[in-house]
Amino acid sequence: MIKVGIIGGAGYTAGELIRILLNHSQAEIAFVQSTSQAGLPVTDIHRDLIGETTLVFVDEVNYSVDVLFLCMGHGRSRSFVEAIPASFNGKIIDLSNDYRLKDSAEGFIYGLPELNHELIKQSDKIANPGCFATAIQIALLPLADAEQLNEVHIHAITGSTGAGQACSSTTHFSWRNNNASVYKSFEHQHLGEIGESMLQLQPDFSEDINFVPIRGNYPRGILASVYIESELSEEAAKSLFEIFYQGHPFTFVVNENPDVKQVVNTNKALVSVKKYGTKLHIVSVIDNLLKGASGQAVQNMNLLFGLDEAEGLHLKSVAF
């Protein structure tokens, strides 16, 4: 049984992580740490878990575990990792952006299984990808692998949970409901990791990746609409995607443009490929809290410990 510790256990991603791990046949949650909620039952914060756990938030970290999941805010994981005792010999999966880029990775492997499947298996430290980055890379990896990428254009929309649990002027209900807005055009923080992955597969890629993120008026899910100029036929392009994603248990190439409801509450990524004149149009959808965060983190844990990659992740979508 894999003993798990969760650091920063009060947020959305930690809540989803706890929910998955409570039903994972090979994992046991040893503790859930939260400085702000220490002493309170986990179900006081994650109320969907009432009746499923008696765990209580703790303040202190127990390092006698097999793996630590870091669910803290961006910028806080690095200081935590630097303070880990040298005696700790477990594995680390970080859900922040602190170690995703190569120049600051410090031994962390970028944890996108569709890209680094074998490297993840051999690692002890994983930098879990960003949610937008996961959806967008699913739409681009097969093209980069075939050295077919040129200038990329992306519009992608995300639910409000992508901004985290803390309320802000752009997340509270009265502003977000019946509303949509663009933010961080052409400068979103996930562009760095996307660009590095494209170069990993297509080393001579030097074109722009133009990304316009959109805030949606719903809680969870990402839809990425991506297009490039391409001489490939629709059939040839779709074949590239089908071949590339063979053996990846959560990524499916579909015939019709997918929608968010097909993936909410699952670890799936659905991707479609269409040709319109000279434009190749790719649509990908994921649940930002699962395939974009906690589900993918457990997928990485499974790979680290030699388990079936899909263990504990057979989650059901919500049709309506």
UniProtKB/TrEMBL annotation:
<keyword id="KW-0055">Arginine biosynthesis</keyword>
<dbReference type="InterPro" id="IPR050085">
    <property type="entry name" value="AGPR"/>
</dbReference>
<dbReference type="Pfam" id="PF01118">
    <property type="entry name" value="Semialdhyde_dh"/>
</dbReference>
<protein>
    <recommendedName>
        <fullName>N-acetyl-gamma-glutamyl-phosphate reductase</fullName>
        <ecNumber>1.2.1.38</ecNumber>
    </recommendedName>
</protein>
<dbReference type="GO" id="GO:0003942">
    <property type="term" value="F:N-acetyl-gamma-glutamyl-phosphate reductase activity"/>
</dbReference>
<comment type="similarity">
    <text>Belongs to the NAGSA dehydrogenase family. Type 1 subfamily.</text>
</comment>
<dbReference type="InterPro" id="IPR058924">
    <property type="entry name" value="AGPR_dimerisation_dom"/>
</dbReference>
<dbReference type="InterPro" id="IPR023013">
    <property type="entry name" value="AGPR_AS"/>
</dbReference>
<dbReference type="InterPro" id="IPR036291">
    <property type="entry name" value="NAD(P)-bd_dom_sf"/>
</dbReference>
<dbReference type="Pfam" id="PF22698">
    <property type="entry name" value="Semialdhyde_dhC_1"/>
</dbReference>
<keyword id="KW-0028">Amino-acid biosynthesis</keyword>
<dbReference type="InterPro" id="IPR000706">
    <property type="entry name" value="AGPR_type-1"/>
</dbReference>
<dbReference type="InterPro" id="IPR000534">
    <property type="entry name" value="Semialdehyde_DH_NAD-bd"/>
</dbReference>
<feature type="active site">
    <location>
        <position position="131"/>
    </location>
</feature>
<keyword id="KW-0963">Cytoplasm</keyword>
<keyword id="KW-0521">NADP</keyword>
<comment type="pathway">
    <text>Amino-acid biosynthesis; L-arginine biosynthesis; N(2)-acetyl-L-ornithine from L-glutamate: step 3/4.</text>
</comment>
<feature type="domain" description="Semialdehyde dehydrogenase NAD-binding">
    <location>
        <begin position="3"/>
        <end position="123"/>
    </location>
</feature>
<comment type="function">
    <text>Catalyzes the NADPH-dependent reduction of N-acetyl-5-glutamyl phosphate to yield N-acetyl-L-glutamate 5-semialdehyde.</text>
</comment>
<keyword id="KW-0560">Oxidoreductase</keyword>
